[in-house]
Amino acid sequence: MKAQGKPIDWRKQLAMPLTWHIAGAVALLILTLFFGIRLGLDWSATHGRRSDALADKQAQVKALELETVSLRGLDARVGEAHEKLNNFYARRVPPSYSAISARVGELQVRSGVRLMRVQYSQGKPGDDLTEIALDTTISGDYRSILHFVNSIERDQMFFVIRAMALTGQQGGSVNLRILISTWLRPDDAAASGLPLTSEVNAANAANAAADASKKEER
What we know:
CATH topology of one domain: Alpha-Beta Plaits
Strand content: 15-25%
Mean pLDDT: 80
Number of helices: 7
CATH superfamily of one domain: Ribosomal protein S6/Translation elongation factor EF1B
Distance between the termini: 160 Å
Strand order of the largest sheet: 1-2-4-3
Helix content: 55-70%
Radius of gyration: 47 Å
Structural class: alpha+beta
């Protein structure tokens, strides 16, 4: 039988330079693997953050693009709006109080009604326009009054009917109180010399109260 081998002398093995070289190489390999894995993880995390940041920036840019779409050509649209407004003023806003009075008179004659009472006043001056109020009572048959109302609403001069109320009827004739508004440029309104609407309304209210008081005394 063969003799069993001698036991390994670990002290001698550890004392050998080759053993330490092998141990150092293994340790270096382990450290290299550790730092390689750590570097890969760090790079992956950094790349992910950069990708998220890039996606956020791209989303912000897209949102800004969408917001600015509505602003494209804004200068042209503003210029077009100003041009339309100026055309409206030139075509439909009367140049003076006398032009308003003359036009209402023309529509009265054309429709066949009779203006029994006419009272003009002006509102508070605005930046661009000042309202001119017309408080009048017209008399005529139903067809003539309807013709007058339609003519006012459709006229080239800009009129707005504020209110209408029947104040009397006799046979085929009807009395209709009608409140109409139009507008003048502030300078034209100031030159008209018309009283303020607030003052006229206050005076009318006072006169109405006085008339009611006299009726009660009777």
